[in-house]
């Protein structure tokens, strides 16, 4: 063979380079056994001991069935050892360095290869690369990972810390209602795995992410962080890439080629450079590269603001004929958290479209703004909070479920989700999908509702965790903000856990952890994003006050979490006026069909059953739900009785949905308002909580089976980018606002109303109730305030007392007669006080389809208007095009779209399963379209 010319050889080199050897040790070829060897079953990696024991039949029923959370607790008190025998080719032993990489181990364990200890692991959020060169053999190798029982280890660490430092790190334990375990704060583990007020304790053990054997002569590229620079003069845009490489402990400096290829719409942009790696003692090195001179790529926008253009990036390191590479999809966009003094920034006023006249300088302290600006455009953050997808971390990355939840959020106008600090840093897939869907991620670091240790060992563990997680996630366009913890500043300042007597100690630990250790790390690794020390916090004001503020709940700064289980949540006047509402919500029941999967006997489907009592971890949760629902809805006096369970579920769901709607619209209306108190200019509404992990009363809008509660449907309306928003205050005045999140104004808009009486089908049509106005860009504007009774009386359609009426509102673009956003139903009085609101006779006239898109069409008929009409498809999974709505006319049509991947019903099957529930002043009625229950039943109350 003739040798090619040297120049050609150089060009060919990267292609010829052999990759670093990565041997996957994943799969169903492991075994797991307990400490005394009485249980030994096949195991799968990635996985966990609960999942393995369930697969082997040792755990005989579903994790979330009955009292299994407690019956299966023994698993978490045993020590479990994972073992694998695997073959190694002799050639692999000739590589300079070999390491066993545990991408995620939950949590405290030792790792052994052929009887030799490779090291210990103690943080489930850290990837461990353990040097294996000396221990590895050609042929059969035996890998063992022996875990320590998490609750036992947590208690041991708690005691040890107390002895060593002379004070305990609280809380002592979770409340009794949680049926949980204590001292999760002493383990770097999903904090919710020891239980939460919405979730069970399953203190897992196992290898929840992949395990691999890596062998190489040069280096592996582990992570890349990126930063675009906008075009400067003739230079074009550029991309700075920093690669993080591993060479193995004690490795010598190494020269090689770092190369990057960025795929742009117009073609690839490339760069490469000779780099000298100077590894630290652990064998870690960084190398930098800049891809320059390309045309500005299309920008990435949040959901509802524009396209989400993603740009594939490949980064490789080649040395001595060996190459390692990673690929990411990155995006071109800027993001800022804007915290400007409210009174001093005309620039901000312009962006928020607040005129000088709207600013009231009445009091002295005005605080700071708190909002996100993406590509220079202020964004009102709309969405929810995300809890772990599954309490068992190995099941939390389920691609179909993660996609389903994010799509549900996207389809209801969500542009931001907060990954809450008591769960896990989510899977790569989660962030990839968020990138694709334009869902910004408020990323808490995983600390929640506790004090935390702050000795050297703990800080070192956290340091490694934060470095790895920030490097892993930094390149994702969706990530918007880093937040140090969930509610720990509030817990400290408000003395939730009895820390008051030793406040200075706990404060100093707090500052050491979140401000002195984490903050500089995050800001150094990711200069493209902000870091707030806690959520909620006062943002920059908290920083200024030494990272612990005297009043963390100050509405003039930062974000606020807000819950009230006593006040009437359908009254907007009860809510606070923060800059950014990052948590707020109400409990409700999951669907009956979902609860059924948790019970053996229908007799348990009652509020007072032992099972249902144990499922509500929120102290007095049922009483609170009842108290709240009864303020507005016809809650039966005997709501605790088994016969009322159905009605209780429905009424708590409706209460939750409307209360959250009321609160969310209140925040949105505050977008352009600045009150004399300095409050207002709210720029975010993230309700608590999107998802659920078991069948229980919780704050979720989607239950654990994926069924949308009424709240999820209403979110699709109250988050609409343009809409009429209305509320009736305590003085019986109706206030209507126009909301517009889009950056353009709309000329020629009118507010229209369509009143109706409860006791007859409406005859009147839409009527203009405002002058024609320009819907301002990116803001909220007041349209009308009126005493509700005379106002209604002045319109066609409600020739009766306001108590007998309802009114639908909408914005209409006059020129093309196009409605802007959804119709907003306004009830002048609570349904339970409405007059003439008798049970409607709602019939399912027909069910047809499915059509080409798989959707079925349901035609409804009614003899009178009905509020909160709620369609359910029995056990069938899917969603309706509209639900929990006011059925105003004699006929309506709703589409049912079966869930992707789930069994789809025929028209006859859907009809047989379909129920339609609605509320009357003193009744809840339900129509079953087919099957044995066919006809109308009174779930509660007398028929008319
Ligand atoms: C072995 O461990 C299991 C589970 O923890 C326990 O139930 C059993 O009693 C133990 N057996 C012996 C012989 O100690
Ligand atoms: C688990 O391991 C710990 C630490 O080695 C030990 O103290 C404990 O007794 C073990 N538990 C069981 C059930 O064997
Ligand atoms: C893990 O195995 C080693 C060696 O057998 C033993 O010394 C250690 O106590 C074990 N740890 C646990 C938690 O079982
Ligand atoms: C503010 O409103 C004006 C007029 O409605 C519009 O032209 C402008 O684009 C808006 N500015 C922003 C930043 O949205
Ligand atoms: C269900 O519970 C009721 C009441 O406790 C009991 O009478 C009945 O036998 C149970 N049914 C089954 C199938 O266990």
Automatic annotation (TrEMBL):
<feature type="signal peptide">
    <location>
        <begin position="1"/>
        <end position="19"/>
    </location>
</feature>
<dbReference type="GO" id="GO:0005764">
    <property type="term" value="C:lysosome"/>
</dbReference>
<dbReference type="InterPro" id="IPR054593">
    <property type="entry name" value="Beta-mannosidase-like_N2"/>
</dbReference>
<dbReference type="InterPro" id="IPR013783">
    <property type="entry name" value="Ig-like_fold"/>
</dbReference>
<dbReference type="InterPro" id="IPR017853">
    <property type="entry name" value="GH"/>
</dbReference>
<keyword id="KW-0378">Hydrolase</keyword>
<dbReference type="Pfam" id="PF22666">
    <property type="entry name" value="Glyco_hydro_2_N2"/>
</dbReference>
<feature type="domain" description="Beta-mannosidase Ig-fold">
    <location>
        <begin position="849"/>
        <end position="920"/>
    </location>
</feature>
<dbReference type="GO" id="GO:0004567">
    <property type="term" value="F:beta-mannosidase activity"/>
</dbReference>
<dbReference type="Pfam" id="PF17753">
    <property type="entry name" value="Ig_mannosidase"/>
</dbReference>
<keyword id="KW-0458">Lysosome</keyword>
<dbReference type="InterPro" id="IPR036156">
    <property type="entry name" value="Beta-gal/glucu_dom_sf"/>
</dbReference>
<dbReference type="GO" id="GO:0006516">
    <property type="term" value="P:glycoprotein catabolic process"/>
</dbReference>
<keyword id="KW-0732">Signal</keyword>
<feature type="domain" description="Beta-mannosidase-like galactose-binding">
    <location>
        <begin position="30"/>
        <end position="209"/>
    </location>
</feature>
<keyword id="KW-0326">Glycosidase</keyword>
<dbReference type="InterPro" id="IPR008979">
    <property type="entry name" value="Galactose-bd-like_sf"/>
</dbReference>
<dbReference type="InterPro" id="IPR050887">
    <property type="entry name" value="Beta-mannosidase_GH2"/>
</dbReference>
<comment type="similarity">
    <text>Belongs to the glycosyl hydrolase 2 family.</text>
</comment>
<protein>
    <recommendedName>
        <fullName>beta-mannosidase</fullName>
        <ecNumber>3.2.1.25</ecNumber>
    </recommendedName>
</protein>
<keyword id="KW-0325">Glycoprotein</keyword>
<dbReference type="InterPro" id="IPR041625">
    <property type="entry name" value="Beta-mannosidase_Ig"/>
</dbReference>
